[in-house]
Design goal:
Helix content is 61%, strand content 16%. By secondary structure, it is an alpha+beta fold. It is elongated.
Length: 376
C-alpha cells in the first residue's frame, strides 16, 4: 500500500477500535445488569455470571461492529475534511475513487473480523450458552433453597420455606400446587429435605398437612401425614433446547447437506439458508457501512458549519439499508431458493456509494446539464 493508504487505514482502524470498545462496554453494561439480577437472584454464583457474560460477548460484538465501522469512517472523513487534508489530496490529483481505496481495505479488515465471529465464534459460544442455560434451568435445588421468600418455580406453583438450617433441613415449608384446573393442593410441613434421585429431585416433607380442594364441587379434603415424598422435578421448566439448533452450528456444518441439517435441528431449509447467507451478508454490510459513511461526507464538501447534515443523511441511509435486510428474513425463511435476496441491501448500498463517488468526481455535471437545457 502507498503511504497515503497506510496513513488513512491506521487512522480508521484506530478510531474503529475506540468506538468498538466504547459501544461494547455500553451494550455489555446494559445486558450485564439484567443478567446479574436474574442469575444471582436465582441463587447462582458470580462465576456463572462471568461465564454467561463471556459466552454472550461474541454475539454482542457482531451487533456493534457495523456501527463502530460506520462511526470510524465518518469520524476520520470528517476530521480530514475539517483539517483540509482531503482538499489538499484532491488538489494533487487524487480522485474520490482513489481516496476510497483505504476505506475499502478498512471495510475488508472489519469484514474479516465479522466473518470469524459470525461463522465460528458466535455459533460455538451460543451452543455452549444454550447447554449451560439448560443445565441451570434443571438445577431446581438452587432455585428453591431461598429462605423467607415466596418463590414461583413455574406457573401456578408457589414454594416457601421459613428457614434453612446449617444441616440443609428446610423448616416450615409451604407448597401450593394449582396446575390442575379442577383441583388445587396445599402442602405444609414442619420439616422438609431435598433428595436427589437420579436426574430428578424429591421433596421429603415430615409432620405436615395436605389440603386438597376439589374446584368442581368445592369440597375440601385434609390429610395429616408423618412423612410424604413429592417429586418436584416437573415444577421447573425442563427445557430440552440444546446445542443442536441452526444458530448454534458453525457455517461449514450448514454448508453440508441441508436435508441432514434439517433432520438434526428440526428447522426448515429456509431457516438454514437464511442463517447461513445472513452471516455472509453481515460481513458485506460492514464494507458498505464504511463506504457509505465516507462517500456521504465527501459529497458535502467543505463548510464552515460542519457536515452534520451529511452525517445525519449517512446514518439514515445506513438504517434504511439495514431495515431492508431485516424485512427480507421472513421471505427467505419461507422459500430457501430466495437466499440471493439477503445480498440485495449490500448491493443497494454499493450502488449508492458508486453514485455518490461519481457525483463527487464529476461535480460540474449538474451545472452542465442545466446549461444545455437553457441553451436554445
Amino acid at each position: 500500500m502507498a503511504r497515503l493508504d497506510r496513513y488513512m487505514l491506521s487512522q480508521l482502524l484506530l478510531l474503529f477500535g475506540f468506538f468498538a470498545l466504547v459501544l461494547v462496554a455500553l451494550f455489555w453494561i446494559n445486558r450485564a445488569v439484567v443478567l446479574f439480577d436474574r442469575l444471582i437472584g436465582d441463587g447462582q454464583s458470580a462465576l456463572v455470571f462471568l461465564e454467561f457474560t463471556a459466552l454472550g460477548l461474541p454475539k454482542l460484538i457482531t451487533t456493534v461492529l457495523p456501527i463502530a465501522t460506520f462511526a470510524g469512517a465518518v469520524y476520520v472523513t470528517n476530521r480530514m475534511s475539517s483539517e483540509s487534508e482531503l482538499t489538499v489530496l484532491q488538489s494533487t490529483g487524487s480522485s474520490p475513487w482513489r481516496l476510497a481505496r483505504p476505506v475499502f481495505i478498512y471495510g475488508l479488515c472489519v469484514a474479516g473480523m465479522m466473518s470469524v465471529l459470525s461463522h465460528f465464534l458466535v455459533p460455538m459460544a451460543q451452543a455452549e450458552l444454550s447447554q449451560r442455560e439448560n443445565e441451570i434451568s434443571q438445577n431446581i435445588t438452587a432455585s428453591l433453597l431461598r429462605e423467607g421468600q415466596f418463590l414461583h418455580p413455574t406457573q401456578n406453583v408457589t414454594f416457601y420455606t421459613r428457614l434453612i438450617d446449617s444441616s440443609g433441613v428446610l423448616r416450615d415449608v409451604f407448597l401450593s400446587d394449582r396446575r390442575d384446573p379442577a383441583e388445587g393442593v396445599i402442602y405444609t410441613a414442619a420439616e422438609a429435605y431435598l433428595v436427589r434421585n437420579g436426574e430428578g429431585t424429591t421433596l421429603i416433607m415430615v409432620d405436615g398437612l395436605a389440603q386438597r380442594l376439589n374446584k368442581v364441587d368445592t369440597r375440601l379434603a385434609t390429610a395429616k401425614f408423618r412423612d410424604f415424598s413429592f417429586d418436584i422435578s416437573s415444577l421447573v421448566n425442563q427445557s430440552t433446547v440444546g446445542s443442536q439448533s441452526v444458530p448454534n452450528l458453525v457455517s461449514p456444518r450448514l454448508m453440508m447437506d441441508w436435508d441432514s441439517v434439517s433432520a438434526l435441528t428440526g428447522d426448515a431449509k429456509g431457516v438454514i439458508a437464511e442463517e447461513l447467507h445472513a452471516r455472509f451478508a453481515q460481513s458485506l454490510f460492514c464494507i458498505v457501512a464504511a463506504l457509505v459513511g465516507y462517500a456521504t461526507l465527501l459529497t458535502g464538501g467543505f463548510s464552515r458549519f460542519g457536515v452534520w447534515r451529511e452525517i445525519a443523511i449517512a446514518f439514515a441511509l445506513l438504517i434504511a439499508i439495514d431495515g431492508i435486510r431485516g424485512s427480507l428474513v421472513d421471505t427467505v425463511r419461507e422459500d430457501a431458493s430466495r437466499w440471493p435476496l439477503l445480498y440485495l441491501p449490500s448491493l443497494i448500498g454499493a450502488l449508492l456509494v458508486g453514485s455518490m463517488l461519481w457525483h463527487v468526481a464529476h461535480a460540474g455535471w449538474l451545472h452542465s446539464l442545466r446549461r444545455r437545457r437553457s441553451t436554445p
